Amino acid sequence: MANALGMYRTVKRLGIPDSNIILMLADDAACNSRNKFPGCVYPAAARDLDLYGDNIEVDYRGYEVTVENFIRVLTGRMDSSVPRSKRLLSDDRSNVFVYMTGHGGNEFLKFQDNEEISAFDIADAFEQMWQKKRYNEIFFMIDTCQANTMYSKFYSPNILATGSSKLDENSYSYENDMDLGISVIDRFTHYVLRFMESVNKTSQATMQDLFDMYDPDKFASHAGVRSDLFNRPIDQTLITDFFGGVSQAEVLAPEEEFYYSSTPEGGHQQESESFTHVDSATTSGAVKSNNDEIHGYSDLLSVVQDLQREPPKRDTTGLFRTWVSSGLMFALVAWVSMRK
Amino acid sequence: MSEKQETETIPPKDPSKLTFESAFTRRRILASYWLVILLAVPLWWSYTSISRLSLPESRIQALAGKQWHSDIRVHVKSNVKAHPVDAVVSDVARLLKEDLKESEGVSIQFVTDSKSSADTYEVTLNTNVERASLRGRKLTIGMLPDDDAESIESSRLRLASVLRHLLVPPPPAERSNSPQRVVKYSPRYRVSFTLLNEDSASGKAAYTWDMQQAFGAHLGPTIDRLSPLHNFTVESQVQFHAPLAFSPKAVEHEGKIVHGLTHEDLTVFVNSAEWTLSSAVSNDPVLHFVAFIPSKEHDPLYILDDEGHPTTSNAFILPQWGGIIILNQHQPHLNMFALRPIFQTFKTQLLTLLGVADLPPAGIQLDNNEPFSQWQFDALMRRRTMENVEESRDTLLSIVKLVNQIQNMPVGKDVKGDVLGALNALEHAFEVGSSSPMKAFKYSAKAFILSSKAFFNPGNLGMLYFPAEHKYAVYTPLFASIAAPLVAAVVREFLAWKKARREGLAERPKTD
Questions:
Q1: Stretch (H or E) spanning B385
Q2: ipTM of this complex
Q3: Computed over its alpha carbons, how large is the radius of gyration of chain B?
């Protein structure tokens, strides 16, 4: 949860109003009875910065954070009764930044321990957004185990994607808070946020600078970048294109005459930006990304990968197994019933 | 002995056979199980399959290649000897043709008969006219009476440029570097007016305003004029405490300390976290208009230019969001007189945001006190029509494309209905496009609304993607455990039946 809250704090600091941020949070950490610091979420063991703080606006929390709601937010297919604050009101001029974190695996990310979103779902959702001109550019960032597989299925234009780790790699947490007994932030997000601290509203830092900062030794994983769908050179793409709100104002000349005369001057283009954060932290722990849990997952995941890597073999052996077990069952039933 | 006889007459009970069991009952029970399963199969099929109704693809594809264009008819009358109608028309038509791009979707025709249609524009050329004037769809413009080539050329160039600006205002992108100032088309807008006191406790505040009267007097005609295009809902409020999220820079100006807003400050002026500027009752786009009264601490508040000097301007526009005006001098009660300049500014801001083009740079006068001219309204309507047509066509095309591309995407009855409705409206719009601009606009707006509705239908959400092994994982434990005993029972029953038949056959010759 500290991952998403840290990112939320950063985009807010860079001038995105809350109305343009959609924060989806399991939100079960701050007020968890096992949290020794009630109402606080710290991104570091030093506990010098409280991310939960005074002014955060969580749009979707707890059981509202579902795969379906996330896809609905992206595609805009909402019930008419959903309020503005829960909608992604973007258009063809919007740059959208999507940050996701949680437990994941090869081509999926878990939501709340009971659902998962696959890379195909996100890719389709982005394509639908593109078709309805709901974005100008998307910057997709994901911090999870085997994160880079999540953006491998994208096929819509103008998407820049980055993830924390390769296939078969875990994303590790940055440090443990011994008082809480859990790890507090992931390495990838920690270093990205640290880099973002050097960026301000008028910064000229580019995406390339961000990607150059990636260091496999520090992350303990190989962070990846996918820019083949993106049609601008990334060394000319400013970080603030995605992380900063650069709404521009234009000054009107004083009105003197009674009849209509409008002479606006000095206008600049506006970029309305909208941000979506998803944090699918587990509901079991107080704060997500416990190292042990990650290892537990990697065991499970390796099975899935093996299955996926060799589909023909799986088909025949699977079939074989099915028939053998059915046959065994038949034999047992027959034996029991035929017994006189 | 007797015991032995008894055992011979009453055979011992076979524990594997029940007294009430008969082959017939057993087979009926088995058959009823299978019957239930067979009857449930269609139900299961209809519940798990995705309803995908067919869409009128060929009709939608047929629209894809069509170029939208509307005809404008102009009738020219000349009272100037040096400018006979024929010569003026051929010259101006040539100039306009050079200037207009195909993509602007407009063709201008010059007609000789002004009575042909109510939509015909009338241009009268006169001498001794200082300022060109507009009344309804009539334009009176002055031409130089001299008949030397140079003045004829300049007069006609001017006429062509004025017509170009009035009939087809160049897209805003070409006029200034703020192409995204104009809000996107929506059939409904909410217009919210706020009298915002930074801190009324500081003693410098306006507590009441004659908003209703001022609105009626200054904005009412404008809103009425625009009502064929949009439906407006107006709301207003007074707030007494609205702190800024930053503190304005103190600068020295004419020997006094004043407070200034730099250009960067303007962009973050709206403190969206703490100001509630509109009610959230509907999802219509909101246009905000704010009269901001700085607190005593920040008074007077000016907008600074790039060099950091205060400017005379006190109002600015946030593109697509709304307009803000800063009031430094005011009474505790803002009466009609005090509100006049404020609402004039609001009017300008509103028109700018809605995309009403400015009058051509060459001074043109509106005859009566219309809020803006019929020419501007028509030009706006033409532009909105074209935008709506293109937008709804793109939406329809992308619906078709997505439905073909994403096999899991359901297409329900209401989606199909909306797509058909949008398609019909769009085809009507193309039909009436050149004859009746107003009807074409109505149809295009309908197409726009319906196509967006079809696209954003909540039921349209593509089912989530499940890999094949997920499906096996769900179905195998459910069905294998039921299917195995059922199939085994059938096989067993069949074997028993065969055995019985064989025995029966073996017995029959004996009895016969």
A1: helix B374-405
A2: 0.73
A3: 39
